[in-house]
Amino acid sequence: MPLFSYKARDSAGKETAGVLTAETQEAVAERLLEMGYLATQIVPQAEKPMQQRDLFERFQKVSPREYVLLATHLGNAVESNLPLLKVLEVLADQVSTSKMRAALKQIAADIMGGSSLVGAMRKHPSIFDDYFLNLVNVGEVTGKLPQALHRLADTIEKETEFKQRVGSALMYPILLTSVATLVVVFLTVVILPQFAKVFEESKIPMPLPTQILMAISAFLRRFWYIPVGLGFGLRVAFGRFLATERGRFLFDRFKLRLPKYGELQTKICITRFMRILATLYGSGVPIIKSLQIVEETIGNSVYKQALQQVGKEITGGGRLAEALQQSGLFPPDSLLVVSSGEASGKLGEMLDKGADLYDKEVDYALRTFTSLLEPLIILGMGIAVSFVAMAIMLPLFQMTQTM
After folding, report:
1. Beta strands at 15-21 and 38-45: parallel, antiparallel or unpaired
2. Which of 63, 181, 196, 273 is 20 to 30 Å apart from 71, CA to CA?
3. How many other CB atoms are found less than 10 A from the CB of residue 136?
4. Closest CA to 335 of 317, 366, 358, 309
């Protein structure tokens, strides 16, 4: 259907502009009249061919901050009876990504054309996932759109803070490992060859550590492309392995079985499960649909498969707490939260409290894990650097003794 850009004004003389899809210019004018606007200009807008579009938009990632901003301001607008179209126009100017900006302008045009908010959002699946859309849909159906949007904004904000805390806690061990590796490689490839010439001229017998390190150094300097190519190949192979359903499941199961780190991963999955399920179910999304959305957002294939089975059990008349217990992936305290919520009829509220409690458990597990990991990394770095230093210093000591 053709696109038409328009300018119009209402009975108070306030002007507006936008884009509508219609068969003819007359159809656009009639639709604007139905909405209380008098068209002052209607111009056909040619759609750009695919090769002229901004392909960069396809790869843009909308930040959580923009989702929070959108949900909060839309919720405030509906709550205060402000014009939804005006809010969308203002938000389109505030967002930083052109992908979200274009989507908001199109959503405003679709709403002006008679579409519902969730109907307009469904046309942008790369931006709005099932989690977002279902909460907006339930809010519109139940007449509690402001509450649903505010709850959505709060959940996204908590999830973002949660991910940032986990990422920040794990960043130091990763940085420490990277620095240690670079130091050892630098000593082996750059520093050791400078001493190797001196050792060869002195014609003293090389100690075993020196011989090993000199062989490694010579190999890396001459055939550096072999470890680089091997590392790249392994990275590609591992990426393809994880791209398969079986590969992702095996890797996620391996992570859950690691000492301490597996405990951390379990708590992260349960926190996300409780928070997202609390938001969906507490907003009125049916439990089966809520579980299906949680499956796609929990971030672990083992838990995803378990929740699929849980959904089948509930469909057959089972209780949520019992189905979760059968999976063997949920600790007793999390099951107590769910069973208490089911018994009291306040499942959403209890899950919300459970998510806050497990949030603190994740912080404690992170501190425990990093406090154990950091000394191990430092110890490993110390051993590697000591080996390199010993390989360099032992021949020097022998040279001083022979002089």
Report:
1. unpaired
2. 273
3. 25
4. 358
Work out the burial of residue 231: count CB atoms within 10 Å of its CB; fewer than 13 is exposed, 13-18 middle, 19 or more buried: exposed
CB 111 within 8 A of CB 125: no
- Spatial strand order of the sheet with 15-21 comes to 15-21, 3-9, 38-45
Show the tokens assigned to 284. 């009125």
pLDDT digits (tens, 9 = 90+) for 62-111: 888 888 888 888 888 888 887 787 788 888 877 878 888 888 888 888 88
Judged by phi (left if over 0) then psi (alpha if -120 to 50, else beta), residue 46 lies in beta
Secondary structure (H, E, C), 2-37: CEEEEEEECCCCCEEEEEEECCCHHHHHHHHHHCCC
Q: Nearest 10 degrees: CA dihedral of 363, 365, 366, 370?
A: 150
3-state secondary structure of 204: coil
The structure's pTM equals: 0.72
Instruction: State which amino acid sits at residue 386.
Output: S
Site of tokens 């949030």: 359
Give exposure, 146-183, as e/b (b: 16+ Cβ within 10 Å): bbbbbbbbbbbbbbeebeeebeebbeebeebeeebeee
pLDDT digits 0-9 by tens, 342-383: 998 888 889 989 988 988 888 888 888 888 888 888 888 888
